Amino acid sequence: MKPSPRRAHTIARDLLSLTRSGEADRLATALVSTASPTRQGPALDDVVERLVDTFSLAAKDRRRSLRIREPFTLRLRDPAGMTVRPDKLDPRVAAIARAIAASVRDDTDTCADQIGEACGNADLAQRIRVLAHCLVWTSDLLSADTTAYPPVLSCLDGSHPHRPQ
After folding, report:
1. Helix (H) or strand (E) holding 77
2. What are phi and psi of 152, to 5 degrees?
3. What is the maximum alpha-carbon separation in the chain?
4. Tens of pLDDT along 63-78?
5. DSSP state for residue 40 in the 8-state scheme
6. pLDDT at 158
7. Spatial CA neighbour of 134 closest among 145, 120, 119, 144
8. Mean pLDDT of the chain
9. From CA 130, how far away is CA 84, in angstroms rounded?
10. pTM
11. H, E, C per residue of 27-61
């Protein structure tokens, strides 16, 4: 039986709620369960797609309310607050940033391709990293000052494989 899009939406909403509430233990369990390649129910890419859509809709609303006409941009920051270029990120995390940008531009093909890049053939740790970034970024955007633009996305530890240690 193919999982319904509604079920992916519900899982994304529940994960986002756990992220925003700070229930770390329940969130950790839900992240592992959702990211598990053997899980029953919606595939990771379906849940990630819902989170990207949620981010995209919020970003579009913000752009509209602020009357921003220039091309959509994101600012990526490392845990220390320093600017990070997407090409310095884990390729799967960078793919999610590109998926978000494509979704805001209504480029559904590129968005779907980038979500596939982020979720396809990934091990559990990579799948969790992708899902965690989607959750943190969406939660941050929804919680941020509605006049803040462009969105500043905080990258989690471990998402900078090309940075010298």
Report:
1. strand 75-77
2. -105, 120
3. 46
4. 999 999 888 888 999 8
5. S
6. 66
7. 119
8. 88
9. 17
10. 0.88
11. HHHHHHHHHCCCCCCCCHHHHHHHHHHHHHHHHHH
